[in-house]
């Protein structure tokens, strides 16, 4: 059942991305472009998504998950260097192409060669990320 | 902007419902970069079937829906140097930060996670600055 739930989650997520217009890189870059013809859509998408998620988080306080033993514990509140460096690198890439991981998968079948090239590069980046992390951690220990 | 914001709101709610289903049924956080990254670097070997099923739904269902409704525009730039650089940055960055727009943004902010809020601030700031520099100053994108 967990596998089926996962498939339904991915399918619903993908339909939401398509309906919201987030598979259209013009809308993402248009939202980031505060000095251009600013497009507010992404703010509505974020707002619309956060409401059901906030309700779900509330429900986790009084219930048990259906197909698991317990809900994920709150993450450590530590703001580490990897979080800041990683998010900054991600933001630069997101601004350059207008794609982040979810929409990149959702639009892969109709995004043309550009979308496919982005996906291959993203997977390569994910593959080398553990090595980059180790390198950064060593640097931190040394300094 | 026409009625795009209404589609944004409805689509956003559908995304949020997807995340709510994943959390309430499987007790998992719907973060695209973590789910894909775990398949790529081997850290998600123990539950690879769940990860693969989510990716399959995310890939095929909107793909089929787009074809069924006459195609959808992605407007990805044809500049391969830009898309490859962007893809590498997104891949490395999201894994270093342990999350992207869905994990830190949607799932993190909705539980008022400080990490999610800080991460979102940095990637939106960096993304906005990148668009300003590469579009308005350099004219590359």
TrEMBL record, chain A:
Keywords associated with the record: Membrane, Transmembrane, Transmembrane helix
Pfam families: DUF6691
Residue stretches spanning the membrane: 41-59, 79-99, 105-129
Protein name in UniProt: Sulphur transport domain-containing protein
TrEMBL record, chain B:
Membrane topology note: Multi-pass membrane protein
GO CC, alphabetical: plasma membrane
Superkingdom of the organism of origin: Bacteria
Keyword terms of this UniProt record: Cell inner membrane, Cell membrane, Membrane, Transmembrane, Transmembrane helix, Transport
Protein family: Belongs to the TsuA/YedE (TC 9.B.102) family.
Pfam family, any one: Sulf_transp
Localization annotation: Cell inner membrane
Record carries keyword Protein biosynthesis: no
Transmembrane segments: 6-25, 52-72, 78-97, 117-138
InterPro entries assigned: Sulf_transp_TsuA/YedE
Source organism: Yoonia tamlensis
Protein known as: Sulphur transport domain-containing protein
């Amino acid at each position: 059942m967990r596998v089926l739930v996962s498939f339904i989650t991915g399918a619903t997520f993908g339909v939401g991305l398509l309906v919201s217009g987030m598979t259209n890189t013009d809308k993402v870059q248009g939202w980031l472009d505060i000095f251009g013809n600013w497009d507010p859509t992404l703010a509505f998408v974020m707002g619309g998504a956060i409401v059901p998620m906030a309700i779900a988080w509330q429900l986790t306080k009084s219930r048990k998950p259906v197909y698991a033993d317990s809900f994920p514990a709150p993450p450590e509140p530590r703001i580490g260097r990897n979080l800041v460096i990683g998010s900054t690198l991600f933001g630069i890439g997101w601004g350059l192409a207008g794609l982040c991981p979810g929409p990149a998968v959702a639009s892969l079948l109709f995004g043309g060669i550009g979308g496919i090239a982005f996906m291959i590069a993203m997977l390569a980046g994910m593959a080398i990320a553990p090595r980059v992390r180790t390198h950064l951690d060593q640097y931190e220990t040394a300094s | 902007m026409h009625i795009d914001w209404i589609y944004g709101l409805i689509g956003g709610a559908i995304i949020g419902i997807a995340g709510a289903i994943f959390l309430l049924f499987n007790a998992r956080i719907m973060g695209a970069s973590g789910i894909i990254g775990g398949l790529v670097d081997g850290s998600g070997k123990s539950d690879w079937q769940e990860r693969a099923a989510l990716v399959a739904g995310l890939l095929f269902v909107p793909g089929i829906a787009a074809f069924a409704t006459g195609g959808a525009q992605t407007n990805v730039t044809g500049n391969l140097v830009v898309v490859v650089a962007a893809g590498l940055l997104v891949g490395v960055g999201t894994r270093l930060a342990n999350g992207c727009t869905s994990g830190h943004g949607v799932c993190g902010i909705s539980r008022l996670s400080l990490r999610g809020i800080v991460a979102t601030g940095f990637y939106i700031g960096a993304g906005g600055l990148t668009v300003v520099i590469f579009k308005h100053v350099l004219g590359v994108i």
